[in-house]
Amino acid sequence: MHALEEKIRTEGIVLSDQVLKVDAFLNHQIDPVLMQQIGQEFATRFKDQGITKIITIEASGIAPAVMAGLVLGVPVIFARKYQSLTLKDDLFKAKVYSFTKQTESTIAISKKHLTAQDKALVIDDFLANGQAALGLIDLIKQAEAEVIGVGIVIEKSFQTGRQLLLDKGYRVESLARVASLENGVVRFVEKTA
Ligand code: G4P
């Protein structure tokens, strides 16, 4: 997605060979116009799939997921990472291990929002090692709902997440695919015609 790649080039900061900082438009300050375009692009790529719910994870997945939900006209559920005072219902829970942070966390959504009739699209801001996406897929499967695919704003294609999800048979649509962050420069995956 051209506008997103331009934004990453101009406002992204390469922190290391592994980490891209995008808190000028996605992870802290949010660019609503860009988010709207991102939502439209996800909706275009996953149209005609009968999607009934979008599933994401707090915090940074929420903005792109809501914009996609707006265009597709479906509700957005964000998995909680922390214990909520009000989330006391029966919960679907999954463990997510972060290789980046070397921590394990439990994510949860209420059983009342996701049922076996749902066709779910997973959306997240980053795809690194795929553990967050797999955790969300685990929650969807516990509900016996169908996983239609995974929509990612920024994929770090030099990490393992994309292949892991493809190997498990999931469709992955990433709007920007970063091939490398070496020498402080963002290089994108070359598009095939
Ligand atoms: P994985 O889910 O793909 O395995 O990713 P990983 O554990 O490596 O990432 C943990 C957190 O770090 C996630 O956010 C993920 O979105 C974010 N992340 C991974 N790589 C990058 C990167 O290069 N740049 C930035 N800015 N973030 C990255 P989180 O902890 O869930 O935070 P948030 O959603 O509350 O912002």
Fold blueprint:
Layout: H1 2-11, E1 13-14, E2 20-21, H2 32-45, E3 53-57, H3 62-72, E4 76-79, E5 91-98, E6 103-110, E7 119-127, H4 131-142, E8 146-156, H5 161-167, E9 172-180, E10 187-188
Parallel strand pairs: 3-4, 3-7, 7-8, 8-9
Antiparallel strand pairs: 1-2, 5-6, 9-10
The structure holds guanosine-5',3'-tetraphosphate (G4P).
Guanosine-5',3'-tetraphosphate binds next to β2, β7 and α4.
Can you put this structure into words, describing what you see?
The chain has 193 residues and is an alpha/beta fold. The chain has a single domain, classed as Rossmann fold (3-Layer(aba) Sandwich), CATH 3.40.50. Helices cover 28% and strands 31% of the residues. It contains five helices and ten strands; from the N terminus they run H-E-E-H-E-H-E-E-E-E-H-E-H-E-E. The protein has helices at 2-11, 32-45, 62-72, 131-142, 161-167; strands spanning 13-14, 20-21, 53-57, 76-79, 91-98, 103-110, 119-127, 146-156, 172-180, 187-188. The strands form three sheets. Strands 4-3-7-8-9-10 form a six-stranded mixed sheet, with helices on both faces. Strands 1-2 form a two-stranded antiparallel sheet. A two-stranded antiparallel ribbon has the order 5-6. Helix 5 (161-167) links the parallel strand 8 and strand 9 (172-180). Helix 2 (32-45) crosses helix 3 (62-72). The radius of gyration is 16 Å and the shape is globular. The mean pLDDT is 95.
